[in-house]
Write a structure and sequence with these properties.
Length: 188
Protein backbone atom coordinates (compact mmCIF):
# COMPACT_ATOMS: atom_id res chain seq x y z
CA UNK A 1 0.00 0.00 0.00
CA UNK A 2 1.51 3.38 -0.96
CA UNK A 3 1.70 5.85 1.94
CA UNK A 4 -0.78 8.13 0.20
CA UNK A 5 -3.35 6.79 -2.24
CA UNK A 6 -3.16 8.59 -5.61
CA UNK A 7 -6.72 7.93 -6.90
CA UNK A 8 -5.56 6.26 -10.12
CA UNK A 9 -7.02 2.76 -9.57
CA UNK A 10 -10.22 2.44 -7.57
CA UNK A 11 -9.59 0.38 -4.41
CA UNK A 12 -11.79 -2.74 -4.30
CA UNK A 13 -12.02 -4.10 -0.75
CA UNK A 14 -13.13 -7.59 0.23
CA UNK A 15 -14.33 -8.76 3.62
CA UNK A 16 -15.53 -12.12 4.89
CA UNK A 17 -19.02 -11.66 3.38
CA UNK A 18 -18.85 -8.56 1.20
CA UNK A 19 -17.21 -6.86 -1.74
CA UNK A 20 -16.79 -3.09 -1.65
CA UNK A 21 -16.45 -1.76 -5.18
CA UNK A 22 -16.78 1.46 -7.16
CA UNK A 23 -20.31 2.77 -7.67
CA UNK A 24 -20.99 3.13 -11.41
CA UNK A 25 -23.85 4.64 -13.48
CA UNK A 26 -25.28 1.08 -13.75
CA UNK A 27 -26.07 1.33 -10.02
CA UNK A 28 -28.55 4.19 -10.53
CA UNK A 29 -31.55 2.00 -9.76
CA UNK A 30 -29.87 0.39 -6.75
CA UNK A 31 -28.83 3.76 -5.34
CA UNK A 32 -32.34 5.16 -5.76
CA UNK A 33 -33.73 2.09 -3.97
CA UNK A 34 -31.48 2.93 -1.00
CA UNK A 35 -31.87 6.72 -0.96
CA UNK A 36 -35.55 6.69 -1.91
CA UNK A 37 -36.52 4.57 1.09
CA UNK A 38 -38.16 6.58 3.91
CA UNK A 39 -36.59 4.27 6.52
CA UNK A 40 -33.12 5.14 5.24
CA UNK A 41 -33.98 8.86 5.17
CA UNK A 42 -35.41 8.96 8.67
CA UNK A 43 -32.29 10.54 10.22
CA UNK A 44 -30.98 12.38 7.16
CA UNK A 45 -31.46 15.91 5.91
CA UNK A 46 -31.85 14.63 2.37
CA UNK A 47 -34.66 14.75 -0.18
CA UNK A 48 -35.76 11.29 -1.44
CA UNK A 49 -33.75 10.15 -4.47
CA UNK A 50 -36.55 7.88 -5.56
CA UNK A 51 -35.94 7.62 -9.31
CA UNK A 52 -32.98 6.16 -11.24
CA UNK A 53 -32.37 9.67 -12.62
CA UNK A 54 -31.92 11.06 -9.10
CA UNK A 55 -29.78 8.04 -8.23
CA UNK A 56 -27.59 8.89 -11.22
CA UNK A 57 -27.20 12.49 -10.00
CA UNK A 58 -25.94 11.19 -6.67
CA UNK A 59 -23.51 8.84 -8.43
CA UNK A 60 -22.21 11.79 -10.49
CA UNK A 61 -21.75 13.81 -7.32
CA UNK A 62 -19.80 11.00 -5.63
CA UNK A 63 -17.68 10.49 -8.76
CA UNK A 64 -16.89 14.22 -8.62
CA UNK A 65 -15.61 13.89 -5.05
CA UNK A 66 -13.36 11.06 -6.18
CA UNK A 67 -12.09 13.10 -9.15
CA UNK A 68 -11.35 16.00 -6.81
CA UNK A 69 -9.50 13.52 -4.59
CA UNK A 70 -11.45 14.38 -1.44
CA UNK A 71 -13.63 11.28 -1.05
CA UNK A 72 -13.99 7.57 -1.85
CA UNK A 73 -17.40 5.88 -1.92
CA UNK A 74 -17.98 2.16 -2.21
CA UNK A 75 -20.98 0.10 -3.22
CA UNK A 76 -21.51 -2.75 -0.76
CA UNK A 77 -22.11 -5.95 -2.71
CA UNK A 78 -23.20 -9.46 -1.77
CA UNK A 79 -20.87 -11.70 -3.79
CA UNK A 80 -23.48 -14.48 -4.21
CA UNK A 81 -25.80 -12.44 -6.44
CA UNK A 82 -23.86 -9.22 -7.06
CA UNK A 83 -26.64 -7.19 -5.46
CA UNK A 84 -25.94 -3.66 -4.25
CA UNK A 85 -27.18 -3.78 -0.64
CA UNK A 86 -25.72 -0.51 0.59
CA UNK A 87 -22.95 2.00 0.27
CA UNK A 88 -20.32 3.50 2.49
CA UNK A 89 -17.91 6.34 2.02
CA UNK A 90 -15.04 8.33 3.42
CA UNK A 91 -15.07 12.00 2.55
CA UNK A 92 -13.83 15.51 3.45
CA UNK A 93 -10.22 14.36 3.22
CA UNK A 94 -8.20 16.90 5.21
CA UNK A 95 -4.58 16.27 4.26
CA UNK A 96 -3.18 18.98 6.55
CA UNK A 97 -4.82 17.58 9.66
CA UNK A 98 -4.89 13.97 8.40
CA UNK A 99 -8.52 13.14 9.03
CA UNK A 100 -11.63 12.05 7.14
CA UNK A 101 -15.32 11.62 7.86
CA UNK A 102 -17.18 8.36 7.19
CA UNK A 103 -20.78 7.36 6.54
CA UNK A 104 -22.89 4.36 5.42
CA UNK A 105 -26.40 3.52 4.25
CA UNK A 106 -27.94 0.09 3.81
CA UNK A 107 -31.15 -1.25 2.25
CA UNK A 108 -33.52 -1.97 5.17
CA UNK A 109 -33.99 -5.62 4.08
CA UNK A 110 -30.35 -6.17 5.04
CA UNK A 111 -30.27 -4.33 8.37
CA UNK A 112 -29.23 -6.06 11.57
CA UNK A 113 -26.83 -8.60 10.07
CA UNK A 114 -23.61 -6.80 10.82
CA UNK A 115 -23.04 -5.73 7.20
CA UNK A 116 -22.58 -1.99 7.85
CA UNK A 117 -20.09 -2.74 10.63
CA UNK A 118 -18.17 -5.23 8.49
CA UNK A 119 -17.97 -2.81 5.55
CA UNK A 120 -17.07 0.16 7.75
CA UNK A 121 -14.25 -1.66 9.51
CA UNK A 122 -12.71 -2.53 6.14
CA UNK A 123 -13.15 1.05 4.92
CA UNK A 124 -11.64 2.52 8.10
CA UNK A 125 -8.60 0.21 7.98
CA UNK A 126 -8.02 1.01 4.32
CA UNK A 127 -8.36 4.79 4.85
CA UNK A 128 -5.96 4.89 7.79
CA UNK A 129 -3.31 3.19 5.64
CA UNK A 130 -4.03 4.69 2.24
CA UNK A 131 -4.14 8.32 3.39
CA UNK A 132 -1.89 7.92 6.42
CA UNK A 133 -4.67 9.38 8.57
CA UNK A 134 -4.36 10.26 12.22
CA UNK A 135 -8.09 10.31 12.88
CA UNK A 136 -11.43 9.18 11.46
CA UNK A 137 -14.64 10.84 12.53
CA UNK A 138 -18.38 10.55 12.04
CA UNK A 139 -21.55 12.07 13.32
CA UNK A 140 -25.11 10.86 13.53
CA UNK A 141 -28.41 12.30 14.59
CA UNK A 142 -29.12 11.78 18.27
CA UNK A 143 -31.56 8.87 18.36
CA UNK A 144 -30.11 7.04 15.34
CA UNK A 145 -29.21 4.13 17.58
CA UNK A 146 -28.29 1.72 14.78
CA UNK A 147 -25.74 4.16 13.36
CA UNK A 148 -24.38 4.95 16.81
CA UNK A 149 -23.96 1.24 17.45
CA UNK A 150 -22.08 0.72 14.17
CA UNK A 151 -19.63 3.48 15.14
CA UNK A 152 -19.08 2.08 18.62
CA UNK A 153 -18.58 -1.45 17.22
CA UNK A 154 -15.95 -0.01 14.86
CA UNK A 155 -14.12 1.40 17.88
CA UNK A 156 -15.09 5.08 17.67
CA UNK A 157 -15.62 7.02 20.88
CA UNK A 158 -18.43 9.44 21.54
CA UNK A 159 -16.90 12.90 21.80
CA UNK A 160 -19.77 15.30 22.21
CA UNK A 161 -22.98 16.77 20.92
CA UNK A 162 -23.64 19.59 18.49
CA UNK A 163 -26.90 21.04 19.69
CA UNK A 164 -29.63 21.58 17.10
CA UNK A 165 -27.12 21.82 14.26
CA UNK A 166 -29.21 20.05 11.61
CA UNK A 167 -32.64 20.66 10.14
CA UNK A 168 -34.30 17.26 9.67
CA UNK A 169 -37.92 16.61 8.80
CA UNK A 170 -39.19 19.96 10.06
CA UNK A 171 -37.15 20.37 13.24
CA UNK A 172 -33.64 21.07 14.44
CA UNK A 173 -31.87 18.00 15.79
CA UNK A 174 -28.71 17.33 17.78
CA UNK A 175 -25.78 15.52 16.18
CA UNK A 176 -23.54 13.18 18.14
CA UNK A 177 -19.87 13.36 17.18
CA UNK A 178 -17.62 10.28 17.26
CA UNK A 179 -13.89 9.88 16.63
CA UNK A 180 -11.24 7.21 16.33
CA UNK A 181 -7.49 7.80 16.55
CA UNK A 182 -5.23 5.58 14.54
CA UNK A 183 -3.55 3.93 17.52
CA UNK A 184 -6.98 3.02 18.89
CA UNK A 185 -7.99 1.06 15.76
CA UNK A 186 -7.67 -2.71 15.69
CA UNK A 187 -7.45 -4.10 12.15
CA UNK A 188 -10.38 -6.44 11.36
C1 LIG B 1 -27.14 2.60 10.26
C2 LIG B 1 -27.23 1.39 9.32
C3 LIG B 1 -26.29 1.60 8.15
C4 LIG B 1 -26.81 0.14 10.09
O1 LIG B 1 -26.74 -0.94 9.16
P1 LIG B 1 -26.71 -2.47 9.68
O2 LIG B 1 -26.10 -3.28 8.59
O3 LIG B 1 -28.04 -2.85 10.17
O4 LIG B 1 -25.68 -2.35 10.90
P2 LIG B 1 -25.07 -3.55 11.77
O5 LIG B 1 -25.93 -4.76 11.61
O6 LIG B 1 -23.63 -3.66 11.42
O7 LIG B 1 -25.17 -2.99 13.24
C5 LIG B 1 -26.38 -2.40 13.71
C6 LIG B 1 -26.38 -2.40 15.22
O8 LIG B 1 -27.37 -1.49 15.67
C7 LIG B 1 -28.26 -2.18 16.56
N1 LIG B 1 -29.57 -1.54 16.40
C8 LIG B 1 -30.35 -1.46 15.31
N2 LIG B 1 -31.47 -0.77 15.59
C9 LIG B 1 -31.39 -0.42 16.89
C10 LIG B 1 -32.24 0.30 17.78
N3 LIG B 1 -33.39 0.81 17.37
N4 LIG B 1 -31.84 0.46 19.06
C11 LIG B 1 -30.64 -0.03 19.48
N5 LIG B 1 -29.78 -0.71 18.68
C12 LIG B 1 -30.16 -0.90 17.40
C13 LIG B 1 -28.21 -3.61 16.07
O9 LIG B 1 -28.71 -4.50 17.05
C14 LIG B 1 -26.71 -3.76 15.82
O10 LIG B 1 -25.99 -3.84 17.02
P3 LIG B 1 -25.50 -5.26 17.65
O11 LIG B 1 -24.63 -5.91 16.62
O12 LIG B 1 -24.77 -4.86 18.87
O13 LIG B 1 -26.74 -6.06 17.93
C15 LIG B 1 -28.67 1.18 8.80
O14 LIG B 1 -29.53 1.14 9.90
C16 LIG B 1 -29.11 2.27 7.85
O15 LIG B 1 -28.85 2.21 6.65
N6 LIG B 1 -29.79 3.31 8.39
C17 LIG B 1 -30.30 4.39 7.55
C18 LIG B 1 -29.20 5.28 7.03
C19 LIG B 1 -28.43 5.92 8.16
O16 LIG B 1 -29.00 6.36 9.15
N7 LIG B 1 -27.09 5.97 7.98
C20 LIG B 1 -26.22 6.55 8.95
C21 LIG B 1 -26.26 8.02 8.88
S1 LIG B 1 -25.28 8.71 10.22
Amino acid sequence: MPPSFDFTTFPVLTTERLILRQITPDDAEGMSAIFGDPLVLRYLNQRPLDTPEKGRELIDYLAGEYRQQVGVDWGIILPADGRLIGMCGAYKLDRANRHMDIGYHMLPAYWGQGYATEASRAMIGWCFDAFDLHRIQADCTEGNLASERVLLKCGLTEEGIWREICWEHGRFVNLKQFGLLRHEFKMP
